[in-house]
Amino acid sequence: MEENYWATERNGHKLKDMYNPETNTLDIRSNGLYPSNVLSNLCSNGFRFDGRICGSMEGFLQSLKRKDPDKQRQICSMKGGNARKLSVASWQTDQIVWWKGQAIDRQSEEYQRLIRRAYQAMFEQSERFRAALMQTRGITLVHTSGEPNPYKTILTPAEFCGILMDLRDNYDLRDKTKELEEKSVSKKKLIYLQGLESSAVNETVQALHELLPDFEVVIAPDIPVDLIFSPTLPGGFGHLDAIASK
User: Fold this and answer.
1) Containing H/E element for 57?
2) pTM of the full predicted structure?
3) Angle between helices 109-125 and 157-186 (to 10 degrees)
4) CA dist., res. 195 & res. 85, Å (int)
5) pLDDT per position as a tens digit, 151-205
């Protein structure tokens, strides 16, 4: 049975409101009210990554501690709580973790890229996770129960929250950029004119701006005067009087 992540209690225990209005922060906790609980690595936000099934982000993270491919695959597919129970600390000795048979230095940039790619995959594939994260716009994410020492944990609170806020903010930036590009494209319709005397140019251009505000006017001596060019027209060209009547 699918868990109700919008519930206010679980197993008879009330879930906590993890938002602090004084600091404008949201503490990510599995026992927090939505959206805090859904952002937890323990939440069953399943996704596929590098050909592997990940039952949760916790499953993926805990699997990195295992060199054996079969054991890693098993843990990776688990729900968060089950995967967490299989956590080991042996990797801390040499700071080496594993992914699909490849040894990776926990303190390396390669490791950071791997983790970020995994979160990106979950963000793109899990609508529940993505919706919860985007609901936190303008809020600083924190994880007060995490281990801050990167030599003792697979993911620090700073790494965890930094990745999530980058995903959220980059997604918003992408939407805004796309919107601006669409508006910009709509303004890039061009009118090419030919054969006008200099005394008639200003009046003609002004009249065209008033008649067709979405078009830019360009004087081009090698194109017939009664033709208009626009990327929105079939073949690119049309008669000015026909365009003006639309």
Assistant:
1) helix 57-63
2) 0.71
3) 60
4) 81
5) 999 999 999 999 999 999 999 887 666 666 665 544 445 555 555 555 566 667 6
